[in-house]
Amino acid sequence: MIWVGWRQQRAEAAIVAAMLAALAVVLLPTGLNVASAFDAGHLSSCTGATASDSCQQAVDQFLVRFSGLGGLVAWLTLLPGLVGTVLAAPLLVSLEQGTHRLDWTQSITRRRWLVTKLGLAALAAVVAAGVLVLLVTWWRTPFVRLQGRMDNSVFDSEGTVVLGYTLFALALCTLVGVLWRRAVPALMVGFAGYFAIRILFDTVVRQHLLTPLQATWSAHGAPPPSAWHAWVLHQFPSDRFGHLASVDIKCAHGPDITTNCATDAAFMHAVYHPASHFWALQGIETAIFGGLALAMLAFAAWWVHERVG
Amino acid sequence: MSAISTQDLGRRYGSKWALRDCTIEVPEGSVTALVGPNGAGKTTLLQLAVGLTRPSAGEVTVLGLSPRDPALLARVGFVAQEHPLHRGFTVAETMKLGRELNPGWDDALAQERLRRLDLPLDRTVGRLSGGQRAQVALTVALAKRPEVLVLDEPVASLDPLARREFLNALMEAVSETGLTAILSSHIVAELERVCDHLVILAQARAELAGPIDEILAGHRLLTGPRTDAAAVARMHDVIRERHTERQTTLLVRANGHVYDADWELHEIDLEEIVLAYLGYRASRPLTEAVAR
After folding, report:
1. Cβ separation of B84 and A99 shorter than 8 Å?
2. CATH of domain B2-203
């Protein structure tokens, strides 16, 4: 059955491999370019929490030069969903074209057929997600050293969450497809649903997965070390009684907490996830997406086993 | 033992019964034709027999086992409607699929059949003609070495020549291996040559089931002067009655011999019997027909 399962999803596996290969063709040379610019600017000495003025200038120069490219790489957050959607296709097409009836009336049980087909698709999803994470993580190393990796656009394509996302997209498309029994619309709806849930996590859910830290510091001093490369949820100045200062606030947005937002404020307050929360947040989010993926795959398999003729 | 046996078998989709109260026996070693118009429940009955769908009512056994029994999988072959094959597979890969998925695969038989049919091994299935695809599907089913072979509308999509070749191949396999075959069709003409048993399905119910020679012997066409059919109907089942101004023609299923000087007796061919039964539903209450 392994050969049959592989043969039936060879084309989709080739599409995914081609997508990753095309990505590598773009990322490898540009990544080398980014890395050599990082070295040429001696930026490795500028990765600490406190940077000298000359460092700040070099960092800004580097970030401005590659901001367009970095923005493009952020779009790769769509790729896990696309990979999962493509890998869900063979099973759905088989059900739509009726070829499952050929397979099911040979000498193997439906259970073995389902386990092999879904297992191979999940395996391909994990391998593709792994390659994607390695490529993107390597490419973005210089940026992460300068800016951290807590920002959504970075967090989403590093660590283990990508595995969860890919499996989730595969499972969601599979479930919609076996219930609806129309392959192409099901894949489109599945991908759209996957994307909506990702946006929900980025904007609403993730910040609540762990309790964020709160810090208060003098408006003329430096923020606490834990705020370095943190994901700032709220940040506001106050007067010395703790009342919210009603001043024109010129705070830079981004992963770093900038000091001296308001010149006449006495204190700065911030609610944030420190960089040390990275793996805990990754783990929780991976568990949620991975767990939902396994539950949906199990339900889809049960549905096909019991309800599809 | 019956190869396939159903008892009050029914299958419902939503509120609509695709098959209802179906009780038939397909004897081992027989070649049974399952005849009926489109939508009569033929596909449903066959899919129930091979375990693709589960009954909503009643039960079906194949070789004494439930169709979903894993022990039965290797013993039953199935050629589905439209012969679904993986269109991107080559003929050789389709045979490899059969070899991979069937422990009892008879590769020599498969190769010999393909060679005789002159099928190009390296061509993808999607580029074969309809007749060739049907033969590939039959080859997969036969090389599995099943004891019971179920074919759903195997010749519906074929031209007359391909139809004849397909049925010849099937007959040959039946005579060589002694397998039990049941095939559905809405075309009666070719079946009489191939089959020895007949099941007529109409509007989700089995109307008639039995050996073809008994069916032929049991049905008579009576013609006589115009009269009411009531007298005949007391003795025999009147399947169809037609009246002209002066003459009445009855198709009856005779319970015993028809001795009646008023009527002239004629033999009748299978196709006409089938057509009469397919029109029969309209004129008789359901329960009566099923009780037969």
Report:
1. yes
2. 3.40.50.300
pLDDT tens digits along A102-154: 999 999 999 999 999 999 999 999 999 999 999 999 999 998 888 889 988 88
Q: Which of left, alpha, beta for B69 (phi over 0: left; psi -120 to 50: alpha)?
A: beta
Closest CA to A175 of A83, A12, A85, A296: A296
Give contacts of A101 with chain B, Cβ < 8 Å.
52, 78, 80, 84
Best residue of A1, A12, A95, A107 to probe chain B, by most B CBs closer than 10 Å: A107
Phi then psi dihedrals of residue B206, to 5 deg:
-80, 120
Task: List, for residues B127-171, the tens digit of each pLDDT value.
Answer: 999 999 999 999 999 999 999 999 999 988 888 888 888 999 899
Task: List the structure tokens of B162.
Answer: 């391909």
Is the CB of residue A242 less than 8 Å from the CB of residue A195? Answer: no
Alpha carbons A21 and B50: distance in angstroms, whole number: 44
A104 closest CB neighbour out of B52, B82, B89 = B52
Q: Which residues in chain B have their CB less than 8 angstroms from residue A107's CB?
A: 73-74, 101-104, 144
Mutate to test the interface with A, among B86, B145, B148 (most CBs of A within 10 A): B86
- Disruptive mutation site among B62, B87, B101 for chain A (greatest number of A CBs within 10 Å): B101
User: Cα dihedral angle (A49, A54, A58, A63), rounded to 10 degrees?
Assistant: 50
The conformation of residue B199, written as its DSSP 8-state character, comes to E
- The chain-wide mean pLDDT, for chain B, equals 88
A1 touches B at CB < 8 Å: yes
Sort out which chain B residues have CB atoms less than 8 A from A120's CB and list them: none
Provide the whole-model pTM: 0.87
Q: How many CA atoms, within 13 angstroms, populate the side-chain half-sphere of residue B199?
A: 28
Q: Give the tokens for residue B87.
A: 């269109």
Residue type, A177: G
Q: How far is A171 from chain B (nearest CA, A)?
A: 23
With contact defined as beta carbons under 8 Å apart, do B115 and A120 qualify?
no
Interface of A with B in 108-127 (CB under 8 A): 108-109
Which chain A residue shows the shortest CA-CA distance from B70? A109
Q: Which residues of B touch A9 (CB under 8 A)?
A: none
Does residue B34 contact residue B26 with C-beta atoms inside 8 Å? no
Six-digit token string for A21? 């290969």
Alpha helix segments (H runs only) across chain B: 42-49, 70-73, 91-101, 107-117, 130-143, 160-177, 191-194, 212-218, 230-235, 270-280, 286-291
CB distance A65 to A58 below 8 Å:
no
Give CA separation, B181 vs A129, B30, B34, B97, in Å. 49, 6, 10, 23
CA distances from B157 to A197, B46, B130, B186 (A): 46, 18, 7, 11
b (16+ CB within 10 A) / e for B81-103:
bbbbbbeebbbebbbbbbbbbbe
